[in-house]
Amino acid sequence: MRRLAQKRIDWMERVLARLEARARRRGAALAAHLATGIEGEDAVYFYLRRQGYVVVARRWSAGNLPGDLDLIAWQGGQLCFIEVKTRTARDASPAEIAVDAHKRGLLRRLARSYVRQLPRAEPPPTHAVSVRFDVISVYLVPGKPREFLHFENAFAWKEPQDESA
């Protein structure tokens, strides 16, 4: 059964790639950096599915807050908020460095909003749900296989206090 599920995921990935290629040929052009980001998010979506994650949302937006959560998935009983960073070359600084303190704060606010809107009799406090924040760097270097670097628990609900102050 697991093999059949893997084949289904492979098939879905190929179909999505063909549909996106057809859309690009028909003139639905995005800026290059946006197209690269979407391609990376799609690659990570299928990567996570192959790892057994259940992806429940892609590019989720709260509506009243800026930004979006790239992917939201369950791994067992743990809710994972996943930030995807895509690069088409390996340069001096790794892709995951782009998730700075400002970006982490934005992702935390969006995650709190998402957890509050989960269907329940009462909104749960954010600490009552087992949550983690992951960062996945995907390198889509032309002529090379895709490379994924998955940083589970990349950061927590709160920033550590600066001990030097």
Question: Which features would summarize this protein structure in a list?
Answer:
165 residues; alpha+beta; Trna Endonuclease, Chain: A, domain 1; 2 domains; five-stranded mixed beta sheet; 5 strands; 36% helix
Q: Can you put this structure into words, describing what you see?
A:
The protein is of the alpha+beta class and 165 residues long. The chain has 2 domains: 1-30; 32-155, Trna Endonuclease, Chain: A, domain 1. 36% of the residues lie in helices and 25% in strands. It contains 3 helices and 5 strands; from the N terminus they run ααβββαββ. It has helices at 2-25, 32-50, 101-116; strands at residues 54-60, 69-75, 78-87, 131-139, 147-155. The protein has a 5-stranded mixed β-sheet with strand order 1-2-3-4-5, sandwiched between helices. Helix 1 runs antiparallel to helix 2. The longest helix has 24 residues, at 2-25. The chain is globular and about 45 Å long. The mean pLDDT is 85.
